[in-house]
Automatic annotation (TrEMBL):
The gene is bioA. Gene3D superfamilies: Aspartate Aminotransferase, domain 1, Type I PLP-dependent aspartate aminotransferase-like (Major domain). This is Adenosylmethionine-8-amino-7-oxononanoate aminotransferase. Its EC number is 2.6.1.62. Substrate binds at residues 55, 148, 282, 315, 399. It comes from Leisingera aquaemixtae.
Amino acid sequence: MSAADLTQLEFDQQHLWHPYTNVAKPGPTFVVKESEGVHITLDDGTRLIDAMSSWWCMMHGHRNPAITKAIHDQLDTLPHVMFGGLTHDPAIDLGRKLLEITPDSLTRIFYCDSGSVSVEVAMKMAVQYQHAIGQPERKEFATIRSGYHGDTWKAMSVCDPDTGMHHLFQGALSVQHFVSRPPIRIHEDWNDDPAQNGLGELRAALEANAQKIAAFILEPVVQGTGGMYFYHPEYLNQARALCDELGILLIFDEIATGFGRTGELFATNFCTVEPDIICLGKGLTGGHISFACTMTNDRVAQGIGGGNPGLFMHGPTYMGNPLACAAAKASLDLLTGQDWRGTVAAIGEQMQAELAPARDLPNVADVRVLGAIGVIEMKHRVSADEAHARAHEMGVFLRPFGTNIYTMPPFITSPDQLSEITAGMLRLAREL
């Protein structure tokens, strides 16, 4: 049978490669024809609540009128122009907005294509900074176990090499320095004993390798794909002091946690310190177009500028794309123009109440909620394919990973719609 004779789904399964999918045994795949608000509509007319915010980015819902209008309006005047030697109002206006809402010390903005690229940029910044100030031997990185920072080459090297998704590439990737994830959870009392709070291990690792380490990179407070684990921000406060003592930069990967998802505008705001470099993506454009950025402080930017060759050695073709900048500005205006904090708190409170019965199920290891993130952790791995097979009946699209059945719902999700999501999560916890 020729490709022309295949149905849309048959063509997809025979020729299109989906993320983390076995092409020889593709799982249930749905053809989406339309999306609006919290719903995606399939080719058979079924409407599913997108409980994943399409991998955590669609915080204002699908096809938000303000964001789509911004893209349409921009399309009529300037869809794209190279950012080398040129600039434009959408990039400048977005930059002004970012400086309003991000940590005060982060004054330099580097636009890029995706979250993974944002991490690549951050790591290159750290290495180039150390080289510029006369520390060229500092080109390795420290990080914590169970972290996830993307699928591109250098980003994979700071994902957990044993339990993460990229262990297959051990030996090919740069070897980095890993310490245990912070053991004290966000709602637990802080323990000042370095042997109990993880900082003793961190100090030992950083001191032993200080002359080789450019930066310490981690997801602040919330580890996403590595397990939806929420840890105490005091670990970050003290890690900042340790990094300063040893001349190591601090990078926060806020791709998943930025823009209100945790109940704070940025997870950094749980801390009393700020990083040298921050990575932002996902919700930056409200999920309407791929975009990300890496922000840093004047110390790093001026350090790179004062070294050899003086130029930051990175420049994506679609850097500063006007459509993406316009979408991002509209998304951030939407977010800050509403009571996002009250909205996220209400979502969290409802999930706390409605997911609580899962604690009584025999195969459930933990239930936890932070902001608009809800997690049922199972004692065994959960099949995303089996969850997809129940989506039509539940009217909810959930995609578990590892041992976690979780949701990051759009902020526009109504209480009734959220109840459908939590009911679906409980059903999966009982049946899978």
